[in-house]
């Protein structure tokens, strides 16, 4: 089983003011707390900002999709089951893995994110349209 971990973290000021080698190499990192995700994470805003072409972040999204294709595409990682921790409301990062992992388990701490994905799976109106991103990944894969 391969485990993909994703999440937000922020680089914090170094541990010490003496700039030892250790503090330089291992700056303190704080992960965003679960209560912040539960109270403030907006799935639709996230999808519009980070998973939509034309949002002004196309280069970043294209870079991510290319690297994911290199990671999971031909000659890359594969296996029986992929466990994605912190899937969020998104699936773009799993598209290239679909070919190399027959089973993919998505997880998320935040209720609204799991509900957004469940609504998408049920094809409810108003859920995110992944067709442009799927097409981009198909183009990367050469329409296999
Ligand atoms: C920035 S979003 C990333 C979503 C998605 N992986 C992506 O790349 O678009 C980070 C997600 O991780 C989830 N998360 C943070 N800490 C977690 C934890 N300890 N266990 C499970 N999910 C967690 C949050 O709820 C949030 O949906």
From TrEMBL:
Statement: the UniProt record of this protein carries the keyword Methyltransferase: yes
Keywords: Methyltransferase, S-adenosyl-L-methionine, Transferase
One function term, GO molecular function aspect: N-methyltransferase activity
Cellular component, GO annotation: cytosol
GO biological process, one term: methylation
UniProt organism field: Engystomops pustulosus (Tungara frog)
SUPFAM superfamilies (alphabetical): S-adenosyl-L-methionine-dependent methyltransferases
Family: Belongs to the class I-like SAM-binding methyltransferase superfamily. NNMT/PNMT/TEMT family.
Span of the signal peptide: none
Protein name: Nicotinamide N-methyltransferase
InterPro entries assigned: NNMT_TEMT_trans (IPR000940), SAM-dependent_MTases_sf (IPR029063)
Cited Gene3D superfamilies: Vaccinia Virus protein VP39
């Amino acid at each position: 089983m391969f485990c993909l971990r994703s999440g937000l973290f922020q680089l914090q000021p170094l541990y010490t003011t003496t700039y030892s080698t250790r503090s330089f190499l291992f700056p303190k990192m704080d992960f965003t707390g679960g209560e912040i995700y539960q109270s403030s994470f907006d799935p639709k805003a996230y999808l519009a900002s980070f998973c939509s072409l034309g949002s002004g972040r196309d280069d970043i999204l294209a870079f991510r999709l290319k690297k994911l294709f290199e990671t999971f595409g031909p000659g890359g990682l594969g296996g029986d089951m992929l466990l994605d921790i912190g899937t969020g409301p998104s699936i773009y990062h799993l598209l290239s893995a679909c070919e190399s992992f027959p089973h993919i388990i998505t997880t998320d701490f935040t209720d609204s994110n799991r509900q957004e994905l469940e609504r998408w799976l049920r094809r409810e109106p108003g859920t995110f349209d992944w067709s442009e991103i799927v097409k981009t990944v198909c183009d990367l894969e050469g329409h296999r």
